[in-house]
Design a protein that fits this description.
mainly alpha, two-stranded antiparallel sheet, 62% helix, globular
């Protein structure tokens, strides 16, 4: 099998079929996940933008369990961040990540061990909290932020430069988490090149093995274009299969990953006429 426009289109079509017919997820539920604004409303303040950024910042590897789950959700950080006020955070903590962590331990009492080595998850996340506050402070209003993102999003050639820039502006963010932040704000052209999409794309030969996040990002956009859907929609369909996490539907909840089963199913069907 090789990556062709036809195979790109089939891969997406089979993924949606798998969700609806094999996993028995109702079509309205699937469609809800394919529209970012049906789950996440448009952010209307810099504080809300800051909170959304910190939610994306913990969406990697073990961070959701060590950070979000440990304190009952990222929203609980409002207690020590003055309602996610970036001005307050910068003036109160400066670049002192240890002071942030002290407040988290004292007031939020996270479950489990809180390691304090500089490269551990909690210290790293506290550094993200501080650099993210400085980043958000640059903008006079949330409208100015959206104007800035729109500038990059309008041009196919410059779009990928934005997550690269965010990677440098916000400590510990990275290209993939930058894409996650932007797509969950409603920017459908910034799919997240995460582990689920990487594994499925590689297994179905939709991209070469071992490519970096930037090239996977471009591959996701290519497949979406050939399937005539937004990169966001394509991202979500494969992510739901890989993660099994229907986070906006408690009655479904976490059904476990069906990544391997889907790959076997797709391989046996993608080459059929």
């Amino acid at each position: 099998m090789r990556a062709t426009p036809e195979n790109d289109q089939k891969a997406y079509r089979l993924a949606k079929y798998y969700l609806a017919e094999i996993l028995q997820i109702r079509e309205p539920i699937i469609e809800k996940y394919l529209n970012p604004l049906s789950i996440h409303p448009v952010q209307k303040s810099k504080n809300a933008l800051y909170q959304r950024l910190l939610e994306s910042a913990q969406n990697a590897n073990m961070k959701p369990k060590i950070i979000g789950d440990a304190i009952g959700g990222v929203d609980k950080l409002a207690l020590i961040l003055n309602g996610f006020d970036p001005e307050y955070v910068s003036k109160t903590y400066g670049d002192n990540w240890e002071a942030v962590l002290d407040q988290i331990v004292e007031k939020l009492k996270p479950k489990g061990m809180v390691r304090r080595a500089p490269r551990s998850i909690w210290p790293s996340y506290c550094k993200t909290i501080l650099s993210a506050a400085e980043f958000i402070r640059q903008f006079d209003s949330i409208d100015k932020f959206f104007e800035w993102v729109d500038y990059f999003d309008r041009d196919d050639r410059s779009r990928a430069a934005l997550p690269m820039l965010l990677d440098h502006e916000i400590e510990g963010f990275g290209f993939a988490l930058s894409c996650d932040f932007l797509k969950e704000l409603g920017y459908v052209n910034f799919p997240k090149p995460d582990v689920h999409l990487r594994d499925i794309f590689t297994a179905l030969e939709l991209c070469p093995d071992g490519i970096d996040d930037y090239k996977l990002f471009k591959a996701i956009i290519r497949v979406a274009r050939n399937a005539s859907v937004t990169p966001y929609a394509l991202d979500k369909v494969f992510w739901l299969i890989g993660s099994g996490n229907f986070y906006a539907d408690p009655e479904i909840g976490f059904i476990g990953s069906h990544q391997k089963e889907f790959v076997d199913f797709a391989r046996s069907n993608i080459t059929r006429p």
